[in-house]
Structure formats: C-alpha cells, structure tokens
Amino acid sequence: MFDTDRLGNIFAAVSPPPDAAASPVEPFQVPLERVEAQICELAGHLAAATCRFLVLLADFDARRGWASWEMNSCAQWLSWKCQMSSGTAREHVRVARALRELPVIRARFAAATLSYAKVRALTRIATPATEASLAELAGPMTRRPGSGAAWLGGSRRTGPCPARSACRPCKARCC
C-alpha cells in the first residue's frame, strides 16, 4: 500500500501495548477510564503527526518533489502515492501551504492543542495578522458539523487564495 520497505521498523514503535484494547472474547477487561485516556492521548499523537505530515508536504510541494514523478501537481502525486482521494489530497496541500504562513496555528497544531478539523477551518480565514486571536478563540470551541469557518464567526477570504501560487478558482472554496 505505502512505501513500507523504507520505513524499517516504524510500525513496531507505534504498535499498541497488548492490553490497549479489550479482547473480543472479554470486551470489558480494560477499565473504561483507561480506554478513554488512551483515545485522548492517541488523538493528540494523531494531531501532532498530521501537523508534521503537512509541514513535510509543504516542503515537498515548495521544492516541486512531485514533478520528478511527472505529475501535474503535488495533490495529484499525493493522491497517487498516499492513496488519498483527489479532493482530500487537494485539501491537504491547501492546508499545508497555508500553514507555512501561519506559525502560531502551526505551533498549536504541532502541540496537539488544535485538531486538524480546526486547523483546516482556521486556514480558510486566518491571516498572519489574525491567526493568534483566531487560534486562541478556536482552542476551547467545538466545531459544529457542516459549519465550516462560520463556527469562528469569520467569513471566507476575499481575493485570491494565498495558499495557491498560480491561483485558479479553488474547487475547495477557500477563496
């Protein structure tokens, strides 16, 4: 599926301990509080790993690493190489590009104090001048499904999307 030959023994480092989840035979062996704590801890690891993934993706895109594969865009390469849908790949590239210009949001995402869902919404409306206050506001908020950036009281950017260099109309509606 992925280039696992080059990853070495990375999966051994992230394999759950034997008691991480209850067995199907005895589903209630692990105390519920422990299961809850592990879920929350892993959610933080996922946020930090996703941030690192997007930082690397932004660098790969800026250096046009995808061009050596004869692809037309970073999103096309990501869709092919990491088996993402084309829409998901475009959105990941958009967020990765935006994070380069938003160090406060990037730092909070790396520290797992902002989820990918919040970062995705923030990158649609934040600018370097507004990111600190928006990140502060977004921290304790819960996003309502389908509300986009409106949950922050913001509106869509006007003008060309700063996350796209040669801006054609964004299908992701970030402009």
List keywords for this structure.
single chain; 175 residues; mainly alpha; 7 helices; 0% strand
Percent helix, as a range, is 40-55%
**Beginning-to-end CA distance, first to last residue:** 34 Å
Number of domains: 1
Rg for CA atoms:
18 Å
Average pLDDT metric:
79
Low-confidence stretches: 9-13, 154-158, 162-175
Shape: flat
Count of helical stretches: 7
Portion in strands: under 5%
The counted number of beta strands is 0
Q: Give the ordered list of helices and strands.
A: HHHHHHH
In oligomeric terms, what are we looking at?
A: single chain
Q: Based on helices, strands and strand pairing, what is the structural class?
A: mainly alpha
What do these coordinates show?
The chain is built from 7 helices and no strands. The chain is an all-alpha fold and 175 residues long. The protein has one domain (9-152). Helix 2 crosses helix 4.
Annotate the secondary structure layout:
Elements: H1 10-14, H2 32-62, H3 74-81, H4 86-100, H5 103-110, H6 116-125, H7 131-138
What is shown here, in short?
This protein has helices at residues 10-14, 32-62, 74-81, 86-100, 103-110, 116-125, 131-138. The protein is mainly alpha-helical.
